[in-house]
Amino acid sequence: MKEMKTVDAVGQILCHDITQIIKGVTKDAVFRKGHVITEEDIPVLLSVGKDHIYVWENDDTVLHENDAAEILRQLCQNEYMTASEPKEGKIELTATVDGVFQVDESRFDDVNELDDVTIATLPQNMPVKAGQKLAGMRVIPLVIKKDKMEQVKKVAGDKPLLRLRPYQKDIKVGVVTTGTEVFLGRIEDTFTPVIAGKLKPFGLKIDEHRITDDVTEHTRDAIRELVDLGMDMIICTGGMSVDPDDRTPAAIRDAGADIITYGAPVLPGAMFLLGYLTHEGRTIPVMGLPGCVMYAARTVFDLVLPRVMTGERLTRREIRHFGIGGLCMNCKTCHFPVCGFQH
């Protein structure tokens, strides 16, 4: 690449796109990389502020911005993603399925630490829809040394930096509603319809529902029954606080679940429980939902449900990491997941 006066550039080959910006009208390339400059092009180039122009000259030690961006794409793109054509040194990735978007944070940060390359993504663990933009990447200069891009590849490693976990299909959901007052019909069960509403956007429904009193063994038996009926996910409501007669956590444990966490650094949702049952080779997530899920717009359940639906087995540390961003601002108009909650 070499720089020369635009008025002297007739016959030369552009080595980058030339962008024209007219406020409220257009922001696009008037000439593309590889365009051979003609006499008629000179006034146009001058009108977009290009008194000098960069034209191509052979140099085997450097890569054009579009070619370098293609390397970044290869390092980032994974299954269930589609890539745009390089434009002005930038490539974007878009989701092809609904799911949860994830980034290998450590390697990703190491790549972005390097000079002259940049990758920007959606927040970690964000639920996304097919057709939604996931990431954009580009190199800063018009050309970049080949050995620099070799360094980028070495730092990134062999596995893609990004991942989109698709939602599993045909998940059967079982719900156990606990509470003697509900079991005996003293009050209406207003919690179960809320759960049904949370499941509906994901194409799920409540396949089996059991109501039990506050006897631990009864709740335990209801959970085991739902497991035997082939439920892929079990949700328990009621009895999740620290009151002596709140016994749902004990029932979940007695049913055989490995408790990952009882308590989460999320407000609303501090008394959330997550465990996993193993039955005939299947791993079944069991969630105990605190009462806030019944009345708060967004809670810990909204953070965990999408990830559980992908088949991901969350760890205690991942739940504890929710604390950064785990304070819901209770905005008058909820924009979740396009907000700071969790992220």
Detailed description of the structure:
The protein is of the alpha+beta class. It has 3 domains: 2-55, Molybdopterin biosynthesis moea protein, domain 2, CATH 3.90.105; 62-166, Pyrimidine nucleoside phosphorylase-like, C-terminal domain (Aldehyde Oxidoreductase, domain 3), CATH 3.90.1170.30; 173-323, MoaB/Mog-like domain (Molybdenum Cofactor Biosythetic Enzyme, Chain A), CATH 3.40.980.10. Helices cover 27% and strands 28% of the residues. It has helices at residues 41-47, 65-76, 105-113, 146-156, 180-183, 191-199, 216-228, 248-254, 292-295, 300-309, 316-320, and strands spanning 2-5, 18-22, 26-31, 52-55, 62-64, 81-83, 90-95, 99-103, 117-121, 126-128, 133-139, 143-145, 162-166, 173-178, 206-212, 233-237, 258-262, 273-279, 282-289. Strands 15-14-16-19-18-17 form a 6-stranded mixed β-sheet, sandwiched between helices. Helix 7 packs across helix 8 (248-254). 38% of the residues are buried. The model has no long low-confidence stretch (mean pLDDT 92). It comes from Selenomonas ruminis. Residues 174-310 form the MoaB/Mog domain. This is Molybdopterin molybdenumtransferase. InterPro entries: MoaB/Mog-like_dom_sf, MoaB/Mog_dom, MoeA-like. It catalyses: adenylyl-molybdopterin + molybdate = Mo-molybdopterin + AMP + H(+).
